[in-house]
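Observation: inputs received (chain + zinc ion).
Thought: call the complex predictor directly.
Action: predict_structure
Action Input:
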Amino acid sequence: MRAIRITEDHAIDVIEARVPALKQGEILVRPRACGICGTDLHILHHGFPGTCYPVTPGHEFSGHVVAVGQGTKGVREGDFVAVDPNVVCGECRWCRAGRPNLCLHLSPIGVGRAGAAAEYVAVPARNAFAVNEKIGAGVAALIEPLACAIHAVETAGRLRDRRVLVLGGGTMGMLIALASRKMGAGEITLADPVATKRAIATRIGIDKAVDPSALGDELFDVVFEAAGAVPALKQALTCVDKTGTLVQVGVHDVDVTVPINPFNVYEQEITIVGSNSLADKFAAATELMPDLQKEAETLIGEPFNIWDFAAAVESMAAGHAIKTQLVFD
Ligand SMILES: [Zn+2]
Ligand SMILES: [Zn+2]
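Observation:
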């Protein structure tokens, strides 16, 4: 089979690889749609913790089950599935504590093991979630980022009637805004310096979409830093209201630091909390996505053929669409 491979020295190759042999509990999936996200850019350009180079990327995907290995339950050949990319050990103290995203032996598909930018990918059957194919392969491939958004929103704690600010109008920011709405948040404001992103935020029904410079000294109960950018985080720290919560969702480079004002955190009783990946929210996202199909479709740009991976990455980095996806022959 053919597969995309990223090497440690930033090269993207199309390689001929063996169709993966299925291990106990695994199924073989033929991907139909696969998203590219910031994590893939990190893997390509800076190195991302936990990446096993050379790696076949692709961790946001949907596809058909074409073979099932031994010891698989609940999945059948021909099923259409979305896949939770986080392969965990199930035994370490974080797994046992119900925090699988913090697994000590985490090996995400497309990062620590071969991903979906290939004709076939082997995945543990328990990571596959059946989806009604009618929602579309692209929308199904957005279930993974939606699960991350749900985890972020739940990390924020109570949202009902609280004023929410989302900094960053990428896929995560948009999905966090949508998930916040589902959780009954009060007014939701999304801030992004790019006008086309604000226009899309408005189109999917976000209450307010503004340029970050227009926020002034407005304060919010819950602030999501979903830009992964230092200016956004600095701004986020200044616009959390008393007893408010700042959720760090955006992925910064590992050595970035930002000063905080501890007096402010103390006096205003502010909570700063991280939200990493999707935890155990994949099933919840699978359930929610049909309600958000229209909005999800609005986020997806004109797809690229899988073998045009390099062009897709360029387009993604240039911000031509909120979500860049690959489709398969
Ligand atoms: Zn991703
Ligand atoms: Zn574990």
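Thought: report the result.
Final Answer: Residues 19 and 146 are 29 Å apart (CA to CA). The longest helix spans residues 143-155.
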